[in-house]
Amino acid sequence: MPRERAGTEQRRRLRRANRDDVGLLAGIVGGPEPGRVRATRRILGSLAADVYLSIEGDGSTSGVFMVAYRRSLLAGGLVAEIDLLRCLAPIPSPAREEVLRLLLEGALLRARRRGCVAVSAGVDDESRGALLERAGFEAFAGRVLLPLLKQDP
């Protein structure tokens, strides 16, 4: 971790999640409770996904993004899916938007570096939808999801 210079404030940064972060991430992974830790370990060890954390100047974690990659005949190449883009800490609105923007920029950078031809993202709230639209995402109808595992009530 870079040292802080006298009189300067450390900034928020991104770092790749690793096995030391399993406890933190398992709490936000979906699916049945018993399989969450194993699922998190598999995702972190997979070459088909990138998981990054937003780290504050004081070392605390403020957000997370996960990008999964797949081949697509329709798109004509590798497609990135922003599976998770979330603030983890209760922070005020302006700082929250900054964290989400940093996470989105990081996700898009990873997709570009992987050579993706397109990026898709799910919208689970209005503010996230507005953020994605400002970044150039366009609504694309016709995608549906069928959960294959039943979750505990």
The CATH topology assignment of the domain at 13-17 and 49-134 is Aminopeptidase
CATH architecture of the domain at 13-17 and 49-134: 3-Layer(aba) Sandwich
Report the C-alpha radius of gyration, rounded.
16 Å
Beta-strand percentage? 15-25%
Low-confidence stretches: 1-9
Round the mean pLDDT to the nearest integer and report it. 85
**Helical stretch tally:** 4
Question: Would you identify the CATH H-level superfamily of the domain at 13-17 and 49-134?
Answer: Gcn5-related N-acetyltransferase (GNAT)
Percent in helix = 25-40%
What composes the largest sheet? 5 strands, mixed
Top CATH class of the domain at 13-17 and 49-134: Alpha Beta
- Structural class designation: alpha+beta
Distance between the termini: 41 Å
What string, H for helix and E for strand, traces the elements in order? Answer: EHHEEEHEH
